[in-house]
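Appendix B, record 7
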Amino acid sequence: MSKSMILRGFLRAGAVLMLTATLAACGGGDDDDDVQPPVAETPAPQPDPHPEPETPPRNTAYLQKKAGDVIQVRIEELHPTQAAIGYDQIYYKLGRWQGDFDRATWAADPVLQLDYLNRTVGKKFDDYCEDVGGAERVQKFQSIAEARAARLDQPNTFTCKDAPGTNTANLKTVIVGWDGNLYLTDGHHTFSSLREIFDGGPKLPVWVKVDANYSDLPSATAFWQRLVDERRAWLRDGQNQPITVDQLPTRVGLSNAQEPGGMQEDRYRSLVYFTRDIAYSNGDLPEFAEFLWGDWLRRQAAAAQLQGLDQYKMQAPATPAEILAVSTLNKDILPTGANDSYAAAVRDASVKMSALADTDIVFEDRNAASLGRIVLEANAASGSATKTARDTLEELPRNDVKTSDGTPRGAGKLWFAVNYRTCGKPAAGTCWGW
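Structure tokens (predicted):
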């Protein structure tokens, strides 16, 4: 036998002896009665009862934008900072912007028909050009065919006098949020109207001006707190009740069953819109001024100092004729005409607003002067603010046909709003009246 074979035999024998000794020391061996200790299992990880919320991905497109920058965006990129809008203000735009191309009233006279279309369909393009900073159109429609072909979503079919974004004073404003998205501080009604019109929609391009960039804030909580502190968010619903940030709508535009996320209706916000140039001027007002006036009017109604809106015929089942009954103020600033129509509600609210002193508080520290109050004076001269206010009130329910010769004229805002809400898009055979 070789030395190597002998060596291997000793090694095997040694290993057996070591294993036997080890088992004996542990109480092991071949005895079936011996029970091995259980192996401890690693416990499954338990969920954190207070997990950190997931941070949504940031929109990097606007993170570097600074105050004063003008940017082109789609309407769907704009996030509301208020819950509600005045639906009747939107209905006014939708009623006026959609003239009836097949209207028989002036069909026999193409000149008058074109005049009518420039006052209605043409107004849509004038408003759009102004709102995106491009001034008005270069010229009115020169033919009915041109008016038919023009579409907001086809910019080659119309031309603004200036390139969009040029006139920055006309632009609506946004803030870059903590998440990089754009939050409206002005323009909820404008962009809601453009979103609702058939040739507009969520992808329509618009131009806005950056008011501030708060993308350096660490969280949504910090961002919204800053907006509230700076009065750049209006956290109340359509009934003027407080809401949380989570209850804000996710998009501009009217609420409907087909598409979630729309804005609520605030009827007092609509009312205040129609008191513009009667009870207050719209120039250089603080954010959400119309909501502040609406809050004040609600409080007046609650204190029985003003009739509530349910006392007026402002919606169905009242007929358009009842809703649009003329209500005015005479030279002594005394009420005349109907007392229960929509115009009467505007008249009564306007008189109440105007009766405040400049230093009277409307909301928190906002006084009547800071919110544009117009003083209505008896026996005011022609050309005065009071005479303009009286004329504006009288024109609100006016239709679009001159009584003297039957030619087209500019109709009142209420006339368009009420007919659109009640009758839908202007068309023959509907309650528009032709």
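Remarks on this record: The CA atoms of residues 101 and 148 lie 8 Å apart. The two ends are 126 Å apart (CA to CA).
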